[in-house]
Amino acid sequence: MIIRRKPELTDNDVTDYNLYRQRRKFIQSGFALAAGAMLPLGFDSAVAAGVKFNDLKESPFSTDEELTSLEAITSYNNFYEFGLDKESPAKLSRDFKTRPWEISVNGECHSPMTIGIEDILSEFPMEERIYRLRCVEAWSMVIPWVGFPLAALLKKVEPTMDAKYVEFTTLVDPEQMPGQRRGLFGYVLDWPYREGLRLDEAMNPLTLLSTGLYGEQLPNQNGAPIRLVVPWKYGFKSIKSIVSITLKREQPLNTWQAQASNEYGFYANVNPEVDHPRWSQARERRVGEFLKRPTLPFNGYAEQVASLYNGMDPKKLY
Ligand code: MTE
């Protein structure tokens, strides 16, 4: 695996979020106030150009670990609709149209709806959540997502008593998504890309629908205009460019489970003790770092989510 090094800082790095956060902390401290710098929280003149989200609420669920660089987060991606290697999605998704965009929320619910992305952005208060993302390929990143709890959207449609699972589906558009064209890259997956969660996992406060990162709207290669983020599960559960969310009675079949059920299951909870059939999951490489670090059960979110699986064999929750 080739890991890109963060390049020297240039003028283009004005949105580097580590700097952004340092400045923000300084502004909140007495120093800046004494100096009369009364900038509101969430705004910094040095990074204002290009910042799309203001007044982001900070989340108690955020990790304070060092952030992965914006450059790495946006140039080392898995998005098979835009190619098989890590570099293709950034290049091949450049002209992907994410406006207009609608999501249908349907199935076992009393008030199904179709909602446009602009309405989502104005109706749901966006927060910043800094989460670890642990890919099944044994690398990880720390990403400052912008988003809102999936639970807020699901409550709007009023799930029925029969709703036990939630299925998510990505857009199918071979004209825009070269990975979906037969022949060009081969027909690698059975499109559309699908994912699923149990309803209580979907309603958990950690589960996020993300519309941005590093304070700006989502880059196309990261799943614009809206993607799922489930931080205690392997990255493939975090489905990108969602067009439908369906409440279901039965457990849905997710793309990777359908593709290789001997390697991928429905739960995909991060578990360092359960190896992938072809490699160990005990350690991971944080993108941008050289040495590997131990992987944590539930990717470090055990305190919040381990109880969802009481009575189940953690070795079977892959
Ligand atoms: N969603 C869709 N629609 N297609 C994909 O190929 N890849 C998954 C997930 N969501 C994928 C997807 C995998 S394997 C990972 S690790 C994460 O997206 C990567 O997210 P990132 O590129 O924002 O880091």
Search tags:
five-stranded mixed β-sheet, 13 strands, Sulfite Oxidase, Chain A, domain 2, 318 residues, 9 helices, binds ligand MTE, eight-stranded mixed β-sheet, alpha+beta
Note the main sheet: 8 strands, mixed
Report low-confidence residues grouped into runs of 5 or more: 1-15, 23-51
Q: How many H/I helical runs?
A: 9
Strand content: 15-25%
Mean pLDDT: 87
Structural class: alpha+beta
Number of domains: 1
CATH class: Alpha Beta
Measured between the Cα atoms of the first and last residue, the distance is 23 Å
Query: Which architecture name does CATH use?
Result: Alpha-Beta Complex
Order of helices and strands: HHEHHEEHEEHEEHEEEEHEEH
The CATH superfamily title: Oxidoreductase, molybdopterin-binding domain
Task: Characterise the protein shown here.
Strands 1, 4, 5, 8, 9, 10, 12 and 13 form an eight-stranded mixed beta sheet that branches. With 318 residues, the chain is an alpha+beta fold. The protein has a single domain (17-316), classed as Alpha-Beta Complex (Sulfite Oxidase, Chain A, domain 2). The chain is built from nine helices and 13 strands. The model is unreliable at 1-15 and 23-51 (pLDDT under 50).
